[in-house]
Amino acid sequence: MESIALWQGVTLAGILSWIVISSCLNVTQMIRSLVQPWVTHHVITGTPLIIQIQKYEHGFLDAVFSGLSCVVSVPFYTAFLPLLFWSGHGKLARQMTLLMAFCDYAGNCIKDVVSAPRPKCPPVRRITATKDEEDNALEYGLPSSHTLNTVCLSGYLLHYVLSYTQNQDFCVEFAGFAIVCLLVGFIGLGRVYLGMHSLIDIIGGLSIGLAILAFWLAVHEYVDDFIVSGQNVTTFWAALSFLLLFAYPTPEFPTPSFEYHTAFNGVAFGIVAGIQQTYHQFHHEAVPRIFTQLTVPAFLGRALVGILTILIVKFCSKALAKWVLPVVSNTLSIPIKSTSYIPMLNGSVSVKKSDEIKQSGYIQKLLFFFSHQNSFDVDTGIRFLQYAGLAWSVVDLVPSLFTHLRL
User: Fold this and answer.
1) Is residue 295 part of a domain?
2) Which of 197, 220, 261, 283 is catalytic?
3) What are the protein's UniProt keywords (predicted)?
4) Does the residue 105 lie in any domain?
């Protein structure tokens, strides 16, 4: 018990120390001043290659590469992962969810630290077929999130399938590896063809993705054991999630990257909290799996009930957070603002101004020391709780409904 508390405390203390040190030494700006000019130079010199690739412009290629980008996008995984939980492959689902959150945090941190531009448009032709792609275009370029996520998630999926089936056939392993390589290659080529990334962004996404995948394959069993049978799991993960919000670097100019991280940070917390409470009821290795004990009609029934339920929970958790967080903030004398969720707080501070913060309590002083702001955007907390509630319902509330409905 003491050793468990020790490593958890050391981990949280290490992150807290990093937040303080990086804030005092302005580490983000130091790294950016060294790396950004080099990356920007490669983005500019790589523009002729993008234009050369785009000379093969065709409506079919536009549709194919736009479709591939949607298939490996964050919204796709957000919709796909709940179905994976309900199919009975709980271990794969929770591992891919946590890996996705890790990739999203690491990739977006690097994007906002480097703050390197995307290819200039024009002369590059940029194709944004969906609202999600338009939002992606507002982020910085290096690394390519699509490439990074595809490397990690397709690589881990291949590892899981080969381990689960205990297949030792070299031809099958080679075929799986070839499919993953082709998928990654097409995604990278597609991001360049669509004008979303330069070659340096793709290389960065590939390199970082391989490094993250190698690290995850080394630690994923330890992470899974901790989640399903560890001690202080929910408390530790809540503290970790809170600190990661403050550890996130400040970009040169605001981008949607922090919003994406906040959402997946909430998803990871909701999944961990729910799994830790209900593992032995709904997520152990003996649960029915699709195409075996779980029939296709039953799975389709699960999907229908589950999707409707999580949409309702998402709406309710958002509404509850919009009501609770301003009340709590006012009680603690923490000035807040809202950029989108609460119009009446848009661009304003809800309570005492910064000159009164000097007389506030220790908690407020600590928070403002970390953030260097005179008010907090309450949208961050709302978004975190909204997606945490959604993820919790995927692994706790919805499986309970399946039991009552005998699905």
Assistant:
1) no
2) 197
3) Endoplasmic reticulum, Hydrolase, Membrane, Transmembrane, Transmembrane helix
4) yes
* Token digits of residue 277: 């409470």
Instruction: Tell me how many domains the chain contains.
Output: 1
109 to 90, 188, 382, 383: CA distances (angstroms) = 28, 20, 21, 18
Sign of CA dihedral 46, 44, 212, 69: negative
pTM, rounded to two decimals: 0.86
* Angstrom distance (rounded) from CA 242 to CA 56: 47
- Looking at residue 236, what DSSP letter applies? H
From the candidates 89, 146, 261, 283, give the one annotated as an active-site residue.
146
Please provide the DSSP assignment of 296-338 as one string: HHHHHHHHHHHHHHHHHHHHHHHHHHHHHHHHHHHHTT--EEB
Which residue range is the domain that position 125 belongs to?
2-223
Rounded to whole angstroms, how far apart are CA atoms 242 and 223? 19
Note whether residue 124 is domain-resident: yes
Q: What is d(CA 335, CA 330) in angstroms, rounded to the nearest whole number?
A: 7
* High-pLDDT (> 70) share of the chain, %: 90
219: tokens are 């630690």
Q: Cα 404 vs. chain centroid, distance in angstroms?
A: 32
Give yes or no: 146 in active site.
Answer: yes
Residue type, 88: G
Digit-coded pLDDT (tens) for 310-360: 989 988 988 898 888 888 878 877 777 777 777 776 655 444 444 443 333
